[in-house]
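Q: I have 114 residues here and want to know how they pack in 3D. Can you give me a structure?
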Amino acid sequence: MPKDFTRADITSSQDLSLAPLSYTTTINRKFKLAEVALHASVAITETITITRDSKNGSTYDHILRSGDLVGEQDFVFRPEGECNFEVGDELKVTCTNANVTGIVKLVIKTMEKS
């Protein structure tokens, strides 16, 4: 039976006073999404969107989770069940900067099948 192996965390950060966060992974192999966590340096009111960026083009992209932070600092998404990506599929995470305040840090945890 194959086992899942944890991969190194993927991280990014963005100063929302300068621009919104828009980060797309470049894993380029099969992987399983374990968790997406975003932490803000201060309480923010912004929208977070997590999207599967399909290898087949934007017509096939789909939103895995979208949510609003209202005066909050943390957003965590853990897929229910398996969330498997094929070679060429990537993960895109965005955070608006409507209120131009705070720095956000993004941590993506993935697993690799043996």
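Q: Anything worth noting?
A: The first strand starts at residue 4 and ends at 6. The two ends are 9 Å apart (CA to CA).
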